[in-house]
Amino acid sequence: MAKIVVSASSLPAGRNMSSQLDYIKKMQNFGADMYHLDVMDGLFVKNQTVDYTYLEQLKMSSTLLFDVHLMVQNPTKVINKYAKAGANILTIHYEVFDDDKKFVKALKQIKELGMMAGIALDVDTAVESIEPFIKYCDLVLVLSVKAGKGGQTFNEETLKKIKKLRKTDSRILIEVDGGINDDTGAKCVKAGADILVSGSYIYNNDAYEAIQSLKGRK
Ligand code: DX5
Ligand code: ZN
Question: Model-level pTM?
Answer without folding.
Answer: 0.98
